[in-house]
Amino acid sequence: MRQVTLMELKQLALQAKSDLWDQAQSVGRDVKLYLHWSAGHYGQFFDDYHINIDQDGGIYISTNDLSAVKSHTYRRNTGAIGIALACCYQANTNDLGPEAPTELQIEAMAQVVAVLAKALDLTVDIYRVMTHAEAGNNLDGLNPGYESNGYPDGKYGPGYSCERWDLWFIPGGAKGEGGNILRGKANWYQQQGGI
Ligand SMILES: [Zn+2]
């Protein structure tokens, strides 16, 4: 893992831009950003995500190639970037546990989304920037579902099997609102300019 600044991240996104768009368009859609938490400890990073964000808001990359296909979001990894907060060990759907997302993590994730979306020409909306909880609920209708894997409707998030519910809510926010809060913050950071 290598720590990077937002400016470095922007450069990496620009370098990967054409490959990401080629991949995404090969499956008939725009590039996607997927927002996760690791369900691990603060300071514990995983290769499955392109970007890991620590409790102090530090941004770490697992690869210099943001177009590399990684395994972060079921059936959605082509032309997609996975971004995770290092947190939520022992979290459950009523209690985010002893290592809940910190304010610094949430703000850093919103800034990362703002930078990546701008560099990659993506509108920050639910069709291009989704939490894993939202992807698990198939809120964009993209995942057709696969009988063989037990998700005939493409749904495995909160309200269904609840296997994945990353960022369904964050501290101080209502259930189901995590994605809206993060997208709102990302749009706000873009409007401030300088990103
Ligand atoms: Zn996830």
Count every helix, treating DSSP H or I runs of 4 or more residues as helices. Answer: 4
Order of helices and strands: EHEEEEHEHH
Structural category is alpha/beta
Task: Please state how the strands of the largest beta sheet are arranged side by side.
Answer: 1-4-3-5-2-6
Shape: globular
Structural domain tally: 1
Kindly state the number of beta strands.
6
Bound molecules: zinc ion
Task: Please identify the oligomeric state.
Answer: single chain
Rg result: 15 Å
Low-pLDDT ranges: none
Largest sheet: 6 strands, mixed
**Rounded average pLDDT:** 94
Beta-strand portion reads 5-15%
Tell me the helix content.
25-40%
- CATH class placement: Alpha Beta
Distance between termini? 23 Å
CATH architectural label: 3-Layer(aba) Sandwich
CATH topology, by name, is: Lysozyme-like
Describe the protein.
It is built from 4 helices and 6 strands. With 195 residues, it is of the alpha/beta class. The chain has one domain: 3-Layer(aba) Sandwich (Lysozyme-like), CATH 3.40.80. It has a 6-stranded mixed sheet. The longest helix has 21 residues, at 6-26. The chain is globular and about 40 Å long. It starts with a strand and ends with a helix. It binds zinc ion. The site of zinc ion has 4 residues, from loops.
